[in-house]
Amino acid sequence: MRTTREILEDANRVKPLAAFLTTEKKNAALYAMADELIANTSEILSANAEDVKAAEGKISAVMIDRLRLTESRIAGMADGMRQVAALPDPVGRVLEDITRPSGINVRKVSVPLGVVAIIYESRPNVTSDAAALCLKSGNVCVLRIGKEAFNSARAIVAALRSGLKKTGVDEGFVNLVEDTTRQSSADIMTAVGLVDLLIPRGGKGLIDACVQNAKVPCIQTGTGICHVYVDAAADLAMALNIIENAKCSRPSVCNAMEVCLVNSSIAEKFLPMLWERLVEGRKQNPVLLKLDGGVYKILGGKANCVPAGEGDFDREFLDYVMAVALVKDVKEAAEHIAVHSTGHSDCIVTEDKAAADYFVSAVDSAAVYVNASTRFTDGGEFGLGCEMGISTQKLHARGPMGLNELTTYKYVVKGNGQVR
């Protein structure tokens, strides 16, 4: 087994080769990698079945769903790679071009970051997303997945490296860390000079560990305490559709909503409708509602309705659980979000343009929605092909991280003998 440091050193050996990868070469490799994913579907599914079997009884059903691969999910992974191939090459773009009075020409040109390390948990699809985005942006990726999904990732990486080999691109552009202990994560976090950017993708514990302990540049991603505020002027049928989708379509992901805020003037009418939709109307996976005092006065005593506990409005449930609170207006909703949101994705449902405009201006999150589900915060849905993660910070990258967010820039200065 290669050590994590040996893998990082090999990645740095490959890094200079990126300067000579043409757009055509990168795209050919991406299409070949996608084809190899499809060709190796049975092997990937077999490896994934091992992971799922080992995880059963140890993690929740929604987390098992995150781990499980199917033929259609593998086809979706391949399609995401093809979408990345079809996007413009982010490398070599001239961002600024200025000729100074001295006669020197200064061009600001986009370039790859270098070696991008991704530490992620039990989501095997991230493996191909990260590899595709890194290759297209001229970066070398080093993937460190949790032990729960290691067999799946190993099979996926084998297919991806086969695609690279078939197109004459160095297989070292895609690397999988073989050590699944915590030591390998620590090795990556402290690999100064070997890692140009670290991206953690997973739960709060993983992200906090990376942000607090990394000595290499690190992007803060992921944790999503996402809100939907139902305004006094909301279309209530629309609100119910948005909430059910945002909470229930896939509750284990970071863009799923965790908190519903309801304008108190419509609470008596809307809250029973909400309970009917999310609890009584869902024979499978009814939602557990954790209610503040005002909401409990209306829904208390109904099935799946309990008083909110300490910290429930600051918790990413990642399950069929949702906190619900009353607010008096859009201003109070924005104030609540400012205190409890993680800056990921927050939504207002309203037909009042003034309320919508206030919400968009006042809520400082990476994605702010008016009358649409927070589940759209996704690289594919935003036209980025796929994503490296959702950045909840403001420096360098914010929101879904696509190709442009995986580049930096350098200044290319040309003259004809000028001295200062």
Task: Describe how the helices and strands are arranged.
Layout: H1 4-14, H2 23-39, H3 41-55, H4 61-67, H5 71-86, E1 94-99, E2 105-112, E3 115-120, H6 125-136, E4 140-145, H7 150-166, E5 174-176, H8 182-189, E6 197-201, H9 204-213, E7 226-230, H10 236-248, E8 257-263, H11 267-280, E9 288-291, H12 293-299, E10 305-307, E11 321-327, H13 330-340, E12 345-349, H14 353-362, E13 367-370, E14 390-391, E15 399-400, E16 407-414
Parallel strand pairs: 3-4, 3-6, 4-5, 7-8, 7-12, 8-11, 9-10, 9-11, 12-13
Antiparallel strand pairs: 1-2, 2-16, 14-15
Keywords, separated by commas or semicolons:
420 residues, four-stranded parallel sheet, alpha/beta, 19% strand, 14 helices
Would you mind describing this structure in some detail?
This protein is an alpha/beta fold and 420 residues long. 40% of the residues lie in helices and 19% in strands. It is built from 14 helices and 16 strands. The strands form 4 sheets. It has a 7-stranded parallel beta sheet, sandwiched between helices. The chain has a 4-stranded parallel beta sheet with strand order 5-4-3-6, with helices on both faces. The longest helix is centred in the N-terminal third of the chain and has 17 residues, at 23-39. The mean pLDDT is 94.
